């Protein structure tokens, strides 16, 4: 294993700007790398659906063995601030300079996949067909995978490398997520002269929220009101207020129940104040649940065992492309790669975890 090359690959990746909807430069860089390795590549038109500057990158490598296609995926986009990243290595850990994120989410996953395959090719290890999906706009609501041209994918199962959990932790359950866009209508009035003639939208909202079950609902369900915006001046009774809330659950029935509860609280409060509320609900993606007995799980555990890791299955409270791809007919698990404090200026990544995931990818392909 060439540690210097592996680390340099990752450093090169994070230095290329690829914030959500602006992945093209990085995508073209990857396309060139993969074609030099012998892959055929193709972009779909997913970016057109949400204003991105490129689509998902799908790459295929023909194998010498008649085996089921081995599928790997990771996302190319990063959150902000993700431009002009300056990585720093200190005591075996890679950081940014503190002015940006690092971008290990998910360029560490991409680096592990590409490097693991590079080693397979250099060592002339026989393998079956390999298929890669490097998606766009994952951080923007899984829009890349949500608009993926499925005609480009032939695999039936596969592996996503995109979790902050440790190497060896296998994500087999992920929650559905829904958003509620809420507008509470009040009635404007002069707050000093005749406030009794108005209806305070924030008062309506407050009464509704006071009755809501929020945050941790149970072991499988969470709910949060994250954005509230309204008002124009202190001397005007607030005429309307806009709210964005979310609900997540590993159980789709519980998701619906929590949404209905929040909507009911809003509608009852609005009725009490003799006003109305507009609510738009958006199911972003469904939950997924892959059995511990699934072949894709067994393959991952076997590969981890071969490199000295006792792998375990677990669940996550966050969404990933695994939600979308499982919902679109594939059997997909997400793998912990050890990202630390992703989406923050303190994001960092241990080189040892990167090396572990490279070894895992190589071993998985070799065993398969």
Characterization of this structure:
It is a single chain. The protein is α+β, with helices and mostly antiparallel strands and 368 residues long. The protein has two domains: 3-174 and 287-367, Aminopeptidase, CATH 3.40.630; 176-285, Alpha-Beta Plaits, CATH 3.30.70.360. It has nine helices and 17 strands. The strands form three sheets. Strands 1, 2, 3, 6, 7, 8, 14, 15 and 16 form a nine-stranded mixed sheet that branches. Strands 10-11-12-9-13 form a five-stranded antiparallel sheet. A three-stranded antiparallel sheet has the order 4-5-17. Helix 5 crosses helix 6 (252-272) and helix 7 (295-306) packs across helix 9. The model has no long low-confidence stretch (mean pLDDT 97).
Elements, N to C (H/E):
HHEEEEEHEHEEEHEEEHEEHEHEEH
What is the name of the CATH class of the largest domain? Alpha Beta
CATH superfamily of the largest domain: Zn peptidases
Q: Architecture of the largest domain, according to CATH?
A: 3-Layer(aba) Sandwich
Main sheet specs:
9 strands, mixed
Helix content: 25-40%
Tell me briefly what this model is.
With 368 residues, the chain is of the alpha+beta class. The protein has helices at 3-14, 24-36, 104-122, 143-146, 201-211, 252-272, 295-306, 321-327, 351-367; strands at residues 40-43, 57-61, 70-75, 88-90, 93-95, 130-135, 157-163, 169-174, 176-185, 215-218, 221-230, 240-249, 277-285, 288-289, 312-315, 331-336, 348-350. The protein is 32% helix and 27% strand.
């Amino acid at each position: 294993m060439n540690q210097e090359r592996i680390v340099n690959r990752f450093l090169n990746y994070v230095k290329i700007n690829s914030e959500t909807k602006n992945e093209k430069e990085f995508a073209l860089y990857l396309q060139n790398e993969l074609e030099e390795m012998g892959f055929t590549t193709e972009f779909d038109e997913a970016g057109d659906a949400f204003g991105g500057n490129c689509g998902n990158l799908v790459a295929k490598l023909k194998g010498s063995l008649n085996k089921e296609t081995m599928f790997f995926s990771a996302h190319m986009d990063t959150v902000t601030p993700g431009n002009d990243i300056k990585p720093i290595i200190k005591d075996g850990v890679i950081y940014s300079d503190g002015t940006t994120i690092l971008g290990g989410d998910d360029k560490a996953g991409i680096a592990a996949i590409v490097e693991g395959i590079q080693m397979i090719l250099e060592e002339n290890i026989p393998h079956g067909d390999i298929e890669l999906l490097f998606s766009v706009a994952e951080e923007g609501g899984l829009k890349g995978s949500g608009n993926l041209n499925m005609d480009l994918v032939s695999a039936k199962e596969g592996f996503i490398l995109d979790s902050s959990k440790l190497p060896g932790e296998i994500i087999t359950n992920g929650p559905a997520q829904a958003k509620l866009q809420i507008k509470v209508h009040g009635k404007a009035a002069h707050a000093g002269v005749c406030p009794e003639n108005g209806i305070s939208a924030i008062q309506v909202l407050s009464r509704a929220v006071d009755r809501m079950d929020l945050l941790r609902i149970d072991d499988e369900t969470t709910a949060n009101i994250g954005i509230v915006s309204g008002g124009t001046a202190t001397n005007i009774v607030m005429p309307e207020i806009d709210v964005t809330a979310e609900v997540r659950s590993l159980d789709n029935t519980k998701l619906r129940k929590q949404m209905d509860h929040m909507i009911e609280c809003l509608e009852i409060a609005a009725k009490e104040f003799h006003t109305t509320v507009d609510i738009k609900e958006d199911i972003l993606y469904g939950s997924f649940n892959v059995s511990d007995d699934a072949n894709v799980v067994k393959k991952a555990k076997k590969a981890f065992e071969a490199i000295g890791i006792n792998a375990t299955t677990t669940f996550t409270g966050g969404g990933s492309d695994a939600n979308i791809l499982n919902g679109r007919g594939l059997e997909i698990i997400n793998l912990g790669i050890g990202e630390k404090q992703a989406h923050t200026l303190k994001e960092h990544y241990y080189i040892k975890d990167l090396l572990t995931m490279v070894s895992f990818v190589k071993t998985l392909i070799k065993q398969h």
